[in-house]
Amino acid sequence: MALIKTTERVCEINWFDDMSDGDTAFLGERDLSRASTFEHCLDILQTADRNGFKAALLPTAFDTGMDPLGFALAAQPHTKDISTIVALRMGEIYPTTLARLLSTLDQASKGRFIINAISSDYHPGKKDSPKVRYDRTAEILDILIQGWEKDRIDFDGEHYQIHLDSAPVKCKYNKRPLVYFGGISPEAKAVAAKYADVYLMWPEKMESMKATIEEVSELAYKEGRTIDFGLRIHMVVRETEAEARAYTRHLISKLDDEVAHAMRAKHQDSVSYGVQRQDELRKGADSEGFIEPLVWSYVGKVFSGCGSALVGSGEQVADKLNQYMDIGFRSFIHSGFPLKEEAEYFGKLVMPRMPVVSLGEHYKKTQAAIS
After folding, report:
1. How many CB atoms lie within 10 A of CB 359?
2. Are 335 and 342 a contacting pair, CB within 8 Å?
3. Fewer CB atoms < 10 Å away: N or C end of the chain?
4. CATH number, domain with residue 183
5. Count of domains forming the chain
6. Residue 235 in contact with residue 346, Cβ under 8 Å?
7. Residue 2 has what pLDDT?
8. Could you tell me what percentage of the chain is helix, strand and coil, using 3-state DSSP and rounding each to the nearest 5?
């Protein structure tokens, strides 16, 4: 197995909270009753909290709905244990201002947050090259980490030149917030190896994901680091596989290809390597959309990012997640359609079968034991 940070057989199980009106019971249909209002998104977050999920991803998009950082600040007082994984477009907020906002979130939530660094275009209508996007991301992460770990921020880069005392951006509770990061281009992998705590991936065939984990863990090792790996994948879990497969047919029963294409285009900022690979996998699926046992690819007809779901009984899905753990995954970010109801199914049928931890807390305990 690849050299990963968490060698123990444990995993962090997280959920997803829609921020841009994508919650629905039928793929390709916009459900206005599930629009991304503060109340609806909070209901999903509280449901995930109640079902034992360790964190919930708050995505970002140029679209209707909620801002993830603003929502995280407002929602945390209404939750008990769950953290938020706040997706942040690198460059949308000036680095030191972003650091102050994260310090504020740290105090408001008592440390219950993670950041998901996104290297997408951050101005609507403006397209940057992959090199510019990833170079900018690397600079911002370097600045943030200096602010968290050092007494000063001293940085001279192509995009930012910052020389400041770091006291105003220190976090009181979550002294070194975890950084989740994804992308399969060479530039993305290089950034992950240097800065990420968890490298996030979208679902592919098992052998392909295993090769990526081995490659990125080797890159991290050359940087003198070990990191963990996370998988973002949808869920259709029921008492039996037959029930789960029947629900996939329900999900696409109202799907119109033209409408689906329009919805994909609406949510898609750019056609990345990852998006292209998800499309290629779907083209090679069987007649029902499965790219390998239990992995159903038709979600990608509507959503340009994570395009596949695990479909099966609670036991089957837990077994598949254990296979993913065998190749190196230690964090999972799940979702379903609709989000609240599917969180309940997963919480009941799969969660009790998994060795669930918070990776941040696990890191602290492991470091304390070493010390």
Report:
1. 24
2. yes
3. C
4. 3.20.20.30
5. 1
6. yes
7. 78
8. 45, 20, 35
